[in-house]
């Protein structure tokens, strides 16, 4: 049985963006409602849940969803969709700014974290400052930087490479099963944050999607400090009484 608090030591932390550090849910729902009406997709809510955590380009190209195969149209629709999400006024999730501020409080530790997002560079450069999230010192990884998106391991392999660390010595922080799968496949430890999914979604993983290493309710349950050249995390794995997702 896991202890209520666990001490984890890693070389670096790789954070997902939407659903992990920021809440963009109202804008995402609004954007999918618009696209569902225009592309005659029926109810937009199942699509929101099904596609969360994946690259928008992969989703819009999907033959069972929008089936956009024209490159020029795809690029313009990605931009239009992301603008709709931004218009939904994304905000930082509880504990996110505080945790990143802790990471930036030590000269060496501030170079040991980055953001790995399935969104475009355009979206990330708009949303990160809009939500008052600190910009990673080493930059960040977006959908534009990889040829394969989550659940493939490529984005997190690229994130570790950007920081100059071994991915197997990293902690991936994610809110989506597809992101947890990407982190696990990359060989990193994974921390699932129950903001967009229930704890049971991570506890009852399939054989294909391995269980995350740790599960927490939100980022208020994590503290960090710099210890012997490593990032040391104290993780409170206790669940909230109602066991519900935040979003």
From TrEMBL:
GO molecular function: sugar-phosphatase activity
Recorded coiled-coil stretches: none
Domain of life: Eukaryota
Pfam families: HAD_2 (PF13419)
NCBIfam families, alphabetized: HAD-SF-IA-v3
PANTHER family according to UniProt: FRUCTOSE-1-PHOSPHATE PHOSPHATASE, GLYCEROL-1-PHOSPHATE PHOSPHOHYDROLASE 1-RELATED
Protein name (database record): HAD-like domain-containing protein
């Amino acid at each position: 049985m896991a202890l209520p608090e666990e001490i984890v030591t890693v070389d670096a932390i790789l954070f997902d963006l939407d659903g992990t550090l920021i809440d963009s849910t109202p804008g995402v729902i609004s954007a999918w409602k618009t696209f569902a009406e225009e592309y005659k997709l029926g109810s937009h809510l199942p699509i929101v849940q099904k596609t969360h955590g994946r690259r928008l380009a992969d989703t819009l190209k999907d033959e069972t969803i929008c089936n956009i195969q024209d490159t020029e149209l795809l690029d313009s629709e990605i931009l239009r969709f992301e603008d709709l999400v931004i218009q939904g006024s994304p905000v930082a999730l509880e504990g996110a700014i505080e945790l990143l501020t802790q990471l930036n409080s030590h000269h060496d530790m501030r170079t040991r974290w980055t953001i790995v997002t399935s969104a475009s560079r355009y979206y990330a450069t708009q949303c990160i400052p809009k939500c008052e999230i600190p910009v990673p010192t080493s930059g960040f990884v977006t959908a534009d930087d990889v040829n394969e998106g989550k659940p493939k391991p490529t984005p997190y392999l690229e994130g570790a490479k950007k920081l100059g660390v071994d991915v197997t010595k990293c902690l991936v922080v994610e809110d989506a099963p597809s992101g947890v799968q990407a982190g696990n496949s990359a060989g990193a430890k994974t921390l699932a944050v129950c903001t967009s999914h229930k704890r049971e979604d991570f506890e009852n993983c399939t054989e294909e999607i391995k269980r995350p290493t740790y599960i927490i309710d939100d980022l208020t349950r994590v503290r960090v400090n710099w210890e012997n050249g490593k990032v040391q995390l104290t993780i409170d794995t206790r669940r909230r009484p109602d066991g519900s997702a935040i979003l």
